[in-house]
Specification:
The protein is α/β, with parallel strands linked by helices and about 230 residues long. The protein has seven helices and seven strands; from the N terminus they run αααβαββαβαβαββ. It has a seven-stranded mixed sheet with strand order 3-2-1-4-5-7-6, sandwiched between helices. Helix 6 packs parallel to helix 7. The longest helix has 26 residues.
Length: about 230
């Protein structure tokens, strides 16, 4: 094909592409700066918000909206005491919100995406395909009083394997919240006794699938629905 026949982009399309690439580069530069300063920033408890972390759809990442992450963080705080271990499994949005709102040193984020290792000792690299194979696993066994889980993929295997992790981490009397699709209601109850609640998680970008919250407990804000 002659160069004269090569396809060209319109001025509007080129402007959109340049804007996208510029925004992407800016975010990558911000994150690189965050990584370089992670140790000092973490020690100084400087707020690190989700604007540093772009969703990766290949990892099935869909960040909660602010109301959802606030609600989950508040439930974790209200149902624990100082010193209790709290786990956020595949739920980095809620973890980041919790960390920014409350001073609890024993809150951990279990996450496959290694960008979240900026949280250093509070980060646990986690792959649901290997439910109990992660760093410090034996030290964490049956230590957690409150667990939030948001299985990354909407299928029975992912929920079942994530619940293996939950059971491994859970201390006696632990409280568990699961945020996943409405189609998982029966399985959530069967696997861990988590019942559907009044709370409906929402995501910033919106999702086609209906999401619900299941829990092994209720309180003044989170209540089970009667069937």
């Amino acid at each position: 094909m002659d160069s004269d026949d090569a396809p060209t982009l319109s001025a509007d399309t080129l402007a959109l592409l340049q804007s996208f690439l510029s925004e992407k580069q800016e975010q990558e530069e911000r994150f690189a700066q965050l990584q370089e300063a992670a140790d000092t920033e973490f020690q100084n408890t400087k707020k690190i918000d989700m604007s540093y972390f772009q969703e990766d759809w290949q990892l099935s990442q869909f960040w909660y909206d602010d109301a959802t992450s606030d609600f989950i963080a508040d439930r974790a705080f209200a149902n624990t005491q100082d010193g209790d271990h709290i786990a956020f499994i595949s739920s980095p949005t809620a973890y980041v919100t919790f960390r920014n709102k409350y001073e609890r040193s024993n809150a951990f984020v279990f996450e496959f995406d290694q960008r979240f290792d900026v949280f250093r000792d509070q980060f646990v690299h986690y792959d649901f395909n290997h439910p109990v194979e992660f760093a410090r696993a034996q030290d964490m066994k049956h230590k957690f009083k409150f667990i939030v889980a948001d299985p990354p993929f909407l299928n029975e295997d992912c929920l079942a394997q994530t619940m293996e992790t939950v059971k491994f981490l859970a201390a006696e009397g632990a409280k568990v919240m699961i945020d996943t699709g409405a189609v998982m209601e029966d399985l959530a109850l069967k696997l861990i006794g988590a019942r559907i609640t009044n709370f409906r998680p929402a995501h910033k970008g919106g999702l086609a699938n209906e999401f619900r919250c299941y829990a092994t407990f209720n309180d003044d804000k989170l209540t089970w629905l009667s069937k």
